[in-house]
């Protein structure tokens, strides 16, 4: 009786040992690729690509689910065998030499590929169109259960530029783990190739220990369990340390930007990757939401300029907020804001330093902003005294037939004359440009139309002289604008200015065409007046020569303030006016011949 009991015990123990030593595990490993079905696209799998067995002997491998998606990883799955198909080839093992052509999902499922060397799946285009296809296949791998199960699920947390915490899940009940790591390059664990190694006990975590790492670097980590007499296979993991914040992460370290003269300066690449919160409160003029991630720049306004043009060429941000400050870091004064691709910051102080702050709305878009800064030289006709002279056209049937004269308000500043009320609107005139013309007829039309960039045009027309102007007409009703003037005195000089209605400092690219015309013809008297005398040169360096058909009774020269500075009564048909002592600029020369008076605008060099 005792012998039978002892024999039974031996048998049961043997069966138990045999079952434990041959225990099996099954895992699925997925392989995928994508590309053009016509290229073709090939998915190649080698037996060395199998890793789910944790280094344990493989007992069988079967093809599992094969899936193909049209155009995206989540695209339709119903187009195989209609638009495209796949060829399968196996080398080595149970299915050595097996080839399936123009197959789809179910044609591959369940094939025994145990012991394979390579598996190749190739796309086939079976229609007249080239399609993008995403396809993948599961390999069902059965292998001997390891005596020491590998840990898994490693995660990196609290990652900084120089440190990280690691945690993972135990494979079984082990309480000891080994860890090795290396920067930049993958390696074979256990061979002494690592940058660092350690032993962890009690809990599967490695906190406050991984220090002195390099920023913006891939770290390869291997870890394994110690089951007390046996160890698991090594498990691979990797993470990337954070980048260093940009050097211009706050006002005190603002990057200096070079200002271009009459052009946009060097293009600046502004990156908010890893940018932090500078601690400066959001500007009141900003329209975006500030959540940190601001970057800072500074510039000095070139001597003689008071407006700086900002141009954004590209941005990875959904909304790019720009804020401008004067003052000093810690005592900043808000000057302006914009989210536009171009903007003119005006009213700046020549030679002063300003700070430009850039950030993304919500700080949830990361990347680059490409921008530049420049100044435009003051326009020649930026004020009344330097008004550009236009010549009126006559016998023009309509505005479309008139000759356009190109103009711009880009770079224009405030001439100092407040806006006049027009059609019950006042507007602003902080970017006005000036023109002058001699009326040839009583009726004159001024037509202005913007070119590539829309802006709300205002026209205001004056008689008189600079410094003593009289408002005689305006246009502020639409775009294009047209001022239709009546009752003008032929031979008299009139002025008009053009500006944008709104109180905006943005003048970049705001060009226009101005036409000065009338459908009227010259009267005989007007023709005689035009032919009465000639004058030259204009511009003049010293002597202005005047020649008339009758005696010149009087010549008067006025400055732009209307002050008479020269008076001559020659009573001859020719006369020379000495302007050599006058300062450079524009002057009016009034000539009286008989009963006819004509006013000329002359430029003194």
From TrEMBL:
Origin species: Mangrovimonas spongiae
Keyword Signal: yes
Domain of life: Bacteria
Ranges for domain Fibronectin type-III: 150-246
Record-linked PROSITE patterns: FN3 (PS50853)
Signal peptide, first to last residue: 1-23
Pfam families: GBD_T9SS_assoc, Por_Secre_tail
Keyword terms: Signal
Name under which the protein is recorded: T9SS C-terminal target domain-containing protein
InterPro entries from the UniProt entry: FN3_dom, FN3_sf, GBD_T9SS_assoc, Ig-like_fold, Secre_tail
């Amino acid at each position: 009786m005792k012998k039978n009991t002892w024999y039974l015990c031996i048998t049961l123990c043997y069966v138990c040992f045999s079952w434990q030593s041959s225990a099996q595990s099954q895992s699925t490993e997925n392989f995928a690729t994508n590309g053009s079905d016509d290229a073709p696209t090939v998915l190649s799998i080698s037996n060395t690509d199998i890793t789910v067995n944790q280094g344990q002997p493989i007992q069988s491998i079967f093809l599992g689910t094969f899936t193909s998606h049209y155009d995206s990883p989540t695209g339709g799955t119903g187009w195989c065998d209609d638009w495209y198909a796949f060829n399968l080839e196996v080398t080595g093992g149970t299915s050595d030499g097996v080839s399936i052509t123009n197959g789809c999902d179910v044609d591959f499922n369940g094939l025994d590929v145990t012991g394979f060397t390579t598996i190749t799946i190739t796309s086939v285009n079976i229609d007249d169109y080239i399609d993008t296809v995403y396809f993948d296949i599961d390999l069902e791998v059965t292998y001997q259960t390891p005596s020491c199960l590998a840990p898994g699920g490693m995660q990196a947390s609290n990652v900084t530029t120089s440190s990280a915490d690691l945690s993972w899940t135990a494979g079984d009940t082990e309480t000891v783990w080994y860890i090795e790591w290396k920067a930049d390059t993958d390696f074979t664990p256990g061979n002494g190739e690592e940058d660092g190694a350690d032993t962890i006990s009690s809990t599967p975590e490695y906190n406050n220990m991984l220090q002195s790492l390099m920023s913006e670097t891939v770290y390869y980590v291997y870890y394994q369990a110690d089951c007390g007499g046996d160890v698991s296979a090594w498990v691979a993991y990797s993470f990337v340390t954070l980048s260093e914040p940009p050097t211009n992460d706050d006002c005190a370290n603002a990057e200096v930007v070079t200002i271009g003269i009459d052009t946009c300066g060097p293009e600046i690449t502004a990156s908010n990757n890893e940018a932090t919160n500078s601690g400066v409160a959001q500007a009141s003029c900003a329209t975006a939401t500030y959540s940190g991630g601001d970057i800072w720049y500074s510039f000095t306004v070139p001597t003689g300029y008071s407006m700086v043009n900002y141009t954004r060429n590209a941005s990875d941000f959904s909304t790019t907020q720009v804020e401008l400050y004067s003052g000093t870091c810690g005592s900043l004064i808000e000057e302006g804001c914009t989210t536009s691709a171009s903007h003119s910051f005006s009213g700046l102080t020549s030679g002063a330093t300003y700070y430009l702050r850039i950030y993304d709305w919500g700080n949830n878009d990361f990347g680059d902003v490409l921008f530049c800064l420049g100044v435009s030289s003051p326009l020649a006709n930026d004020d009344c005294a330097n008004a550009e002279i236009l010549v009126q056209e006559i016998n023009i049937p309509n505005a479309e037939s008139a000759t356009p004269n190109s103009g711009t308000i880009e770079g224009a500043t405030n001439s100092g004359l407040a806006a006049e009320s027009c059609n019950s609107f006042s507007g602003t005139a902080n970017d006005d440009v000036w023109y002058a013309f001699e009326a040839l007829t009583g009726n004159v039309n001024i037509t202005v139309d913007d070119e590539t960039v829309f802006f709300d045009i205002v026209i205001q027309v004056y008689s008189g002289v600079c410094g003593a102007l009289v408002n005689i007409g305006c246009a502020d009703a639409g775009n294009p604008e047209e001022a239709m003037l009546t009752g003008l005195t032929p031979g008299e000089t009139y002025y008009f200015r053009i500006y944008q209605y709104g109180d905006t400092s943005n003048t970049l690219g705001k060009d226009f065409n101005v036409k000065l015309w009338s459908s009227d013809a010259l009267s005989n008297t007007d023709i005689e007046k035009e032919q009465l005398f000639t004058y030259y040169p204009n511009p003049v360096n010293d002597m202005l020569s005047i020649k008339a058909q009758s005696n010149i009774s009087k010549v008067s020269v006025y400055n732009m303030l209307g002050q008479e500075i020269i008076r001559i009564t020659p009573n001859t048909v020719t006369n020379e006016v000495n302007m050599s002592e006058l300062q450079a600029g524009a002057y009016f020369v009034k000539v009286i011949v008989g009963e006819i008076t004509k006013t000329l605008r002359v430029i003194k060099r």
